[in-house]
Structures are given as C-alpha cells and as structure tokens.
C-alpha cells in the first residue's frame, strides 16, 4: 500500500516536471500533451473514485501553483475528471484499452473547454472557435497519442505494485 502511494506520487512529480519543462521543447502545433490529465484519468479508471479524487487534487494543485492566476481552477477541473473517470470504472470496468483512451480524449476536450471558459471567456476573449481549433483540439489529439504509451506502461505497472499478499 505504501509502495503503491509512493510510486504514484513519484509518477505525478515526474509527469509534472516533464510537462512543465522538457515537453515544451517537443511541442507540436504550439501544444504540449497533458501528462497530469493522463495520469488522473488512468489511475482513476484503474483504482476508482477515491483515488481519482486524490490524484486529481494533487495534479490540479500543482498546475494551479505553477500556472494558475486563481488557485483552485485547475484543481476543481482535475477533481471532477478524477471522480467521474473513477465512477465509470465502477460501471464499465474491462481490461480493454479503448475505454481509457476514449476517456483521456473526452476529458482533455472537456478540460480544455472548461479552462477556456474559466480563464479566457470571463476576461472578454470571445474567440472560442479559434481556441477550439488551434489549441483545444490539437492538445486533445496530442494528449491522446501520448496516452497510448503511458496507458500501456501504467496497465503493465499497476498489477506489479498492487499485489496483495497471499494468505498462508
């Protein structure tokens, strides 16, 4: 249990550092994949709502501290993403790869629109079509493509770190 939490926190920190530093050197169409969103969705889907809430809170607060003009905007979005992705795990849990990939794409699209409405629309920037075509959709595609690799890794890693002791 402690091993699982430590590895999860380490994954969040590594993803945060990669997303805020290294990935800006390989951005495509002026967007960077949202690694923290991938982690939130995938862990919530694999572990459930409570883990989704906790991981969403950690990822969101890290982004708020780094980029946010108001603390809590990213946190609220990531908490909702974690909760609803974990809720879907309860309903649709399968070992198939397509549903988590669809969840990452959908959550990134919804998060991009949520972030636009809370950060830009309120400030009078009314060019939603431009933002949708040039920022939100390219980020969704890039995040979904990167999530293929990360989801495979996490689905391989999760059974290894969450092994339960066998009773003798």
Quick one: biggest sheet? none
How much of the sequence lies in strands comes to under 5%
Average pLDDT number = 88
- What would you call the quaternary organization? single chain
SS-based structural class? mainly alpha
Task: Calculate the terminal CA-CA distance, rounded to whole Å.
Answer: 19 Å
Radius of gyration: 16 Å
Q: Give me the strand/helix succession.
A: HHHHHH
Structure description:
Helix 1 (2-20) runs parallel beside helix 3 (49-67), helix 2 (35-47) crosses helix 5 (98-119) and helix 3 (49-67) runs antiparallel to helix 4. This protein is globular. It is mostly helical and 168 residues long. It has helices at 2-20, 35-47, 49-67, 73-92, 98-119, 128-161. Helix content is 76%, strand content 0%. The mean pLDDT is 88.
Fill in the keyword field for this structure.
168 residues, 76% helix
Layout: helices, strands, pairs:
Layout: H1 2-20, H2 35-47, H3 49-67, H4 73-92, H5 98-119, H6 128-161
Helix pairs in contact: 1-3, 2-3, 2-4, 2-5, 2-6, 3-4, 4-5, 5-6
What is the structure about, briefly put?
Helix content is 76%, strand content 0%. The protein has 6 helices and no strands.
């Amino acid at each position: 249990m402690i091993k699982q939490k430590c590895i999860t926190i380490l994954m969040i920190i590594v993803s945060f550092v990669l997303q805020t530093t290294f990935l800006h050197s390989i951005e495509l169409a002026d967007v960077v994949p949202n690694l923290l969103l991938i982690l939130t969705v995938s862990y919530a889907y694999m572990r459930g709502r409570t883990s989704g809430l906790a991981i969403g809170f950690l990822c969101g607060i890290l982004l708020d501290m780094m980029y946010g003009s108001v603390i809590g905007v990213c946190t609220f979005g990531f908490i909702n993403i974690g909760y609803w992705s974990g809720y879907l795990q309860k309903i649709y849990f399968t070992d198939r790869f397509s549903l988590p990939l669809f969840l990452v794409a959908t959550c990134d699209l919804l998060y991009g629109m949520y972030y636009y409405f809370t950060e830009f629309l309120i400030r009078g920037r009314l060019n939603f079509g431009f933002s949708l075509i040039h920022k939100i959709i390219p980020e969704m595609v890039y995040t979904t493509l990167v999530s293929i690799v990360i989801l495979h890794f996490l689905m391989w890693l999760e059974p290894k770190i969450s092994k339960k002791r066998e009773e003798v």
